Amino acid sequence: MSKQASNEPAIVMEHVSKNFKVLNRREGLSGSIKDLFSRDYKTLQAVSDVSLTVGRGEIIGYLGPNGAGKSTTIKMITGVLEPSEGKIMVNGVVPYQNRTRNSEQIGVVFGQRSQLWWSLPLIESFNLLRDIYLVEEKEYKDMLELYRSLVDLEPILHKPVRQMSLGQRTLSDILAAFLHNPAIVFLDEPTIGLDVAMKSKIRDLILGLNAQKKTTVILTTHDMGDVDALCKRVVIIDKGKKIYDNDMDHLKTFFGSYRTLRMRLDGEDEWTERVIDENKTDVMKEIEKTQKEHKIKDIQVQEISTEEIIKKIYEG
């Protein structure tokens, strides 16, 4: 599969909005019958005037609280939905007008929805995907060799998907999404439910494939460990509007006065954490206040974490 020219953006969105008509439903049986003939609709705006340009080979985190409009945006980029207003170009293609061509150039891993065949060994799923996407034999073999260089592929290659652990299935789904060398891969919560070791392996794999194939990656996640490990740039959407588009270091400058105060109290094994704005609260006074009620065994003062920054943005 050929990718777009290196100087051409992978994704361009210009003033994109998406509205849905929702029926104003009535209560009760009689209300349900009346609703069958009702024209009483209200309009909900899921995405509002979002503009976005994603360069070739970028890994960006597309973040937002539940209901912010992330899924609607991704569905428009992948061609599942047509925007109510604005324009979208993906690799030079209007996705909702050329769904087949657009599908040839993208890969997706959404939640726990697998594109692998449940009862077949992984290699057989790969062979079927090779035929579906018309991948040439040499490109296919080169891709498998690349996979072997990035992960220990042999233990799972001839294993039926139904016998795999969650981590192995997630790993396999990501490999399947990259198999036809797409220009863009969409990853939705790729490490959800995985242990620390498998999360690290998944992140290393994504970074390796991005570096080797220059694949653009759009990541939606609530795991800020994924963001820190993978994304140089983040886009934050809330209530359908884009509220931030820049790198994480720039975002952290807005929270320069915030610190995470970690204290381990006598009789407790876990750390107690508090986020403090030093412009409003004196750290030493917080420590003294706690010391009056509990004996403190250990203290750490750290810069605010990415997770806490995103949480504060979501909280307004």
Structure, explained:
A hairpin with a 6-residue loop joins strand 10 (258-265) and strand 11 (272-277). The chain contains 12 helices and 12 strands. The model has no long low-confidence stretch (mean pLDDT 88). Helix 7 runs parallel beside helix 8. 36% of the residues lie in helices and 28% in strands. The strands form 3 sheets. It has a 6-stranded mixed β-sheet. A 3-stranded antiparallel β-sheet has the order 2-1-4. It has helices at residues 28-35, 70-77, 99-104, 122-132, 137-150, 154-157, 166-178, 196-213, 224-230, 248-253, 283-293, 306-314; strands at residues 11-23, 41-54, 59-63, 85-90, 106-110, 184-188, 216-220, 233-238, 241-247, 258-265, 272-277, 296-303. By secondary structure, it is an alpha/beta fold. It has 2 domains: 51-252, P-loop containing nucleotide triphosphate hydrolases (Rossmann fold), CATH 3.40.50.300; 257-314, no CATH class.
Beta fraction: 25-35%
How can the largest sheet be summarized? Answer: 6 strands, mixed
Shape: globular
Task: Provide the residue-averaged pLDDT.
Answer: 88
Distance between the termini: 43 Å
Question: In brief, what are we looking at here?
Answer:
This protein is α/β, with parallel strands linked by helices. Helices cover 36% and strands 28% of the residues.
Question: Which terms would index this structure?
Answer:
316 residues; alpha/beta; six-stranded mixed beta sheet; single chain; 36% helix; Rossmann fold; 12 strands; 2 domains
